[in-house]
Amino acid sequence: MEERKNILLQLLQYPMLILSIILGMALISFLFQIDFSRLSKVGPEGIEFYEDREREISGVFSDLETRMNELASKVEFLESRLAEPEQEKLLQRAIEQFEETQITSTKTAQLARSSSQAKESLLAGRSGYIWIGDWGEKNKAWQRLTIVQVEGEEIRLEPEAILPGMKFRVSGNMVLRDGKPDDSPSYYRSKESIGTIPKGSKILTLESPVRYDRRFTIQCWMKVEVLE
Description:
This protein is of the alpha+beta class. The chain has one domain. About 35% of the residues lie in helices and about 25% in strands. It has 4 helices and 11 strands; from the N terminus they run αββαααβββββββββ. Strands 3, 4, 5, 6, 9, 10 and 11 form a 7-stranded antiparallel sheet that branches. Strands 1-2 form a two-stranded antiparallel sheet. The longest helix has about 35 residues.
């Protein structure tokens, strides 16, 4: 009889323990506004949320894809050099390839969105630098522009007329970098990728665009904050 009572008490401990954990999580969620439905893992190192893991995956994939694009650019550059001896054409082609590495694929961009809120970028609240396009000084017009007005209209402002506080949307899946590019041929390799800003995300201008004269074009980079 005593043995049965002990077994029964031991069995009752588990529901009580589970109930205590649930009540504790509910209290913490209420006091600190923590959404435990987004919990990914609990372990000796602490707790991890899906957003943390997704943000890490997004950054890794974005950086990996960019490096692969850079490698492909090098190969194409060398191949074209053998086929086209004209140095001017080679340099112009290399610049175009460098710019292509600043835009990632749709698959990579999908990882950069929150699974709970499909329209929200995992980089919301983060800041960094993006390439926004090339400015034609002669014709005073943008080429390969990667941002648009919030409502989708084309931007016709000169780089200096884009001021801090202005809001735009990215028209491509843009790589967000952690610093301003260096004024050198390998400028884009010197700064780490923070992740991908999915196409259509809203951004806030933190600094007016900076011009980089690449001989055949004027590239413009801008510091932004990802809003959504």
